[in-house]
Amino acid sequence: MARLIASRLLQIVVTLAIVSALTWGAMGLMPGDPVDLALMSDPLLTAADQARLRTLHGLDRPLHERYLAWAGAVLQGEFGFSRLYSVPATRVLWPALWSTLVLLGWSLLLAATGGILLGIWGARRAASGRIVDGFAILTQSTPTFWLGILLIILFAVTLGWLPAGGTADTSGLLEAARFLVLPVTTLALFNIAAYARHSMSAMQAELAAPYIRTARMKGLSERAITWRHAFPNAAIPVVTIAALDAGALVSGALVTETIFARPGMGKLIYDSIMGNDYNLALLALLLAALVTMLATLAADIVQRLIDPRLAG
Amino acid sequence: MRLWLGLTILGALALAAVSAPWVQAMLGADPFNPDLFKRFAPPSTQHPLGTDDLGRDILLRLLYGARVSLSVGLAVALGATLLGTAIGLAAARSGGWRDALLMRVADGMLALPTLPLLVVLAAVDTGRFGLPRGEALSDIIRIAVILVIFGWVGVARLARAAALTQLSLDYVAAARVAGASERRVMLRHVLPNIAGPITVATALAVAGAILAESTLSFLGLGIQPPAPSWGNMLGNAQEMVFAAPLAAVWPGLAILLAVAGCTLVADGLRRRAP
């Protein structure tokens, strides 16, 4: 286990280094630089001013030199300033991360419980299995952003029950929850299919095993067979899905946050890339990648803890 | 059953994409040029699904959008399948550190959040490589290339796993004893036997590519207007969701059908396999 964690942590560090270098290169290929953007908002800047600004911000140096300077500063804990928000990049980063984690946490909880319950129900009979299958194909094929728009049309535009987007102005818990309902539902519905399908096939496999027949012959109730015997074994593949889907969840958060105008990591990444905010975009991307990979690692560890056969 | 349902849906969509110019001639409506006197026209015989915020016919834009979305899906699936199969077979054959390296790269890419990285790549100024933005064809090529960069991973893992299983079977040993070269063993013996799982992966890749293209176009990074794609139609519709809620329904339905069609085909193929 210690070896697994050590090698995976090493892999994470290497991946982060590669991703940061490639992203830096890609951002160098994007149209315009911060000085071009400054020029757009203030056409009075002279050519001399532009050259001076470029030198001041180091934009006249070659791309790889700037990357090394950035990486050196980051390793010393200097994360730089955000150009869009004019504050240290970390100060925008932490609230955004928190907002995204809240969104992801609730969605994951909803998707996993809903998916597992659907899966267990679907494994009972062939007919219910077909319903769950159809539901899974339907939700898996629905684009997240379309689902979000449909929910907005129904609950915000037509019924007027819930806000169409944004976050609460006041700090009331209930008010904050009202703004969370639609985004969480959107993200959860997209992810529920994977949990439903996998827990259903895992349950079907377990329920066909000989030990279940033994349990039935002992006269155990169906409820006890489902929850005490079959489910603990079927839960292992479900944790695997949680591990594999961490990346998809973050991708879904980007879309969901954009639709519902929630100031989270996804929207921050999108806005900072579009706004040519190098420091913030890179930090946000790397943080998102780091959180995803740590979540995958955590799921792998949990998997080994609940299934001693894997620990080997 | 699933396979046929999926193929029927995809066939109908392909037919709709092909028939776009005829439908246009029949309706006499314009899907590209704005007509500000006809904004938000309700459904009528000339505009069966009404018009959008610039007075363009929604049905025709859907049909032309099908061409864009389906061709991106097919191009990505083709590219990802070729690249992924080649990499998967190479990894399975060479083994050792090359195999380990390729699979670590694949693992690393699978663990990363894809969409934020796609956003970075999609924002790159491809005009420098001779692919101007805003022209439909160069947009399609740009998005397809970006999606292949991430799409090969799933196919490669599948191809490698399936190839390793085949390589351990006796007929491979027999072929080697008979003097077949490694290349011949891989291409003539192993490849045909792993075609089944690869086809499933291809069908899933089409679904993933259509979803990813529409997501990027929705975010304004994929196919640029005025060329219609289901994604950018939805992005446009979101801005006027209060004025014309129905305009947001049709493109999403089209994406849903296309993706569900591919998923059904993949499921059907998987169930057929022994």
Keywords:
heterodimer, A: 312 residues, 2 domains, B: 274 residues, mainly alpha
Description:
Chain A has 312 residues and is mainly α. Chain A contains 14 helices and no strands. Chain A is elongated, with a radius of gyration of 24 Å. By secondary structure, chain B is an all-alpha fold. In chain B, 72% of the residues lie in helices and 0% in strands. Chain B contains eleven helices and no strands. Chains A and B meet through helix 1, helix 6, helix 7, helix 11 and helix 12 of A and helix 4, helix 5, helix 9, helix 10 and helix 11 of B.
Helix content of chain A: over 70%
Tell me, briefly, the overall form of chain A: elongated
What is the fold named in CATH at topology level of the largest domain in chain A?
MetI-like fold
Overall CATH architecture of the largest domain in chain A:
Orthogonal Bundle
Oligomeric description of these chains: heterodimer
